[in-house]
Amino acid sequence: MRTKVVAGLLFWIPVGGTVLIINFLFDLFDGLWILVPYEYQPEQLLGYQVPGLSFFLSVIVIYLTGHLVSNYFGNQFISLWDKLLNKIPGIRLFYRSIKQMTEAIFVSGETSFQKVFLVEYPRKGLWTVAFETSSLQGEPHGHIMNKEGESVSKDKNNPAYVNLFVPTTPNPTSGYFVVTHRSSLVELQMSVDDALKMIVSGGIFVPKTPNQEIPNSGSH
Q1: Which of the given ranges, 44-58, 174-188, 202-216, has the highest pLDDT on average?
Q2: CATH of residue 182
Q3: Side-by-side strand order, sheet with 127-134
Q4: Do both 141 and 102 map to the same domain?
C-alpha cells in the first residue's frame, strides 16, 4: 500500500505543481491589464470573460514589444527610458536592481551567469553552488588586491578575484553577492540551467556527473 501511495504522489505532485505555476502565471498576466483603462480591457470590449485570454494577449504584447525594442530606434527609446527612471530618487534603486537581475538570468554576455562554482559559504566546511556574474574588475577588486598585496591580473578572461552570486533555495532570484579568490573555488562542468534546477529543488535534482576525471579534493 505504501508503494502505491508513493507512486500516486510521484504522479500527482508534479502535475499539481505544474498546474499551480500555470495558474499563477495566468493570474500574474491578468493582473497586468490593470494598467490598461478599464473600458479597453479585453473582457469589457468582448462583453464576457474568456479564461486565459489576458495571458495569451500578454504573451503577444511581450513578443511585439521585444520585436520593436530590438531595432535601432527601439534601443534609443530604451536608453532614454532608462535615463529617465534612473533620475527618479527611490524608483531608480528598484528599477536598476530588477533590471540587472533580469539581464543576469535571461541575457548572455558579460552580465549573465557565466560559470558554475562551488564555494565555501557561509563558513569553512559548508559548500554551496554559486555563479560567476562578471569577469569585469573594478574598485572593490583593486582594494582587495592592495590589501592582500597582489598585483592586478592582466588576464581579463581569468581574473584573480571573481564576482559571485550565491542564490538562495528555493528562490534563486534572491541571494548574496561575494568577491573571492579564484583559487578558493571549485569550477563545475554542469550547465547554469542544471545548477538552477538543483538550487530550486533543494538538492533533490542532481545532474549527472560528466564523463571526466574529478579533481582531487585535497588540492582545494
Answers
A1: 174-188
A2: 2.30.30
A3: 175-181, 161-167, 127-134, 115-120, 186-188
A4: no
Domain containing residue 168: 115-209
DSSP secondary structure string for all residues of 101-163: HHHHHH--STTS--EEEEEE-SSTT-EEEEEEEE----HHHHHHHHHHT-PPPS-TTS-SEEE
Bridge partners, residue 179, by sequence:
163
Q: Which residues contact 197 (CB under 8 A, 6 or more apart)?
A: 205, 207
Letter for the amino acid at 163? N
The pairing of beta strand 115-120 with beta strand 186-188: antiparallel
Q: For residue 152, report the phi and psi dihedrals to the nearest 5 degrees.
A: -70, 130
Amino acid at 69: V
d(CA 91, CA 148): 37
Task: Enter the C-alpha cell of residue 171.
Answer: 528562490
Confirm if 205 and 198 have CB atoms less than 8 A apart.
Answer: yes
Mean pLDDT of 140-154: 65
Last residue of one domain, picked from the residues 106, 128, 148: 106
What predicted TM-score, i.e. pTM, was given to this entire model?
Answer: 0.50
Residues 135/157, Cβ–Cβ less than 8 Å: yes
